Amino acid sequence: MASRKGVAITIAVLVGVAAFAYSLPFLIPEDVTMKIIVSDFEEHLDITKEKALMEVTSVDESFEQMINDEISPNDYISIAEVSSSQINSQIIELVESEAGDEWFDSYLNNLESLRKYNSYIMETIVLANLLNDGNSISDQKELVTKIEQLKQESIDYANLSLSTRP
Fold it and tell me: Which of 79, 93, 96, 106 could cross-link with 62 by S-S, CB 3.0 to 4.6 Å?
């Protein structure tokens, strides 16, 4: 037969396991969304600007290489899609940072700059797909004009963001 001490330890372990299993759902957080808390809006905007500048540089260089037949349109599309994803992440960061009233205009203009640049990337991907299909760039004057316009609008909003900083 089992000793009293052994039975007591077994019961204590079973009670402990049952108590842990019962309390486990209360230990798992219900809201697992990531929250971005920004305390220095100027620094946050500067960091976002630097990240965007890296993406802009990468996409612009790759786009020029594609136009000059140094890389294939498919290679450009791969680079552009990754950059677009990075820009989208930055847009989400800016939206969720909840800038204060004095920084709101600057954040909004930076946000618009990123959105315009993302539209620019999407249009360059359209152009790359057309080039993949055998079309020449000279046949796509209207699309090239739209691409240039989106890029300029992105630059204009970026400059406006700088000028509206407190």
Answer: 79
- What is the full DSSP assignment across 50-98? HHHHHHHHHHHHHHHHHHTTSS-HHHHHHHHHHHHHHHHHHHHHHHHT-
Q: What is the pLDDT of residue 25?
A: 67
DSSP assignment string, the chain: ---HHHHHHHHHHHHHHHHHHHHHHHHS-S--------S-HHHHHHHHHHHHHHHHHHHHHHHHHHHTTSS-HHHHHHHHHHHHHHHHHHHHHHHHT---HHHHHHHHHHHHHHHHHHHHHHHHHHHHHHHHTT--GGGGHHHHHHHHHHHHHHHHHHHHHHHT--
The alpha carbon of 43 is separated from its chain's Cα centroid by a whole number of angstroms, namely 18
In this structure, what token pair is assigned to residue 52?
A: 């965007």
Is 121 within 8 Å of 91 (Cβ atoms)?
no
CA distance 140 to 110: 30
Q: What tens digit of pLDDT does each residue of 103-159 get?
A: 888 889 999 999 999 999 999 999 999 988 888 777 788 888 999 999 999 999 999
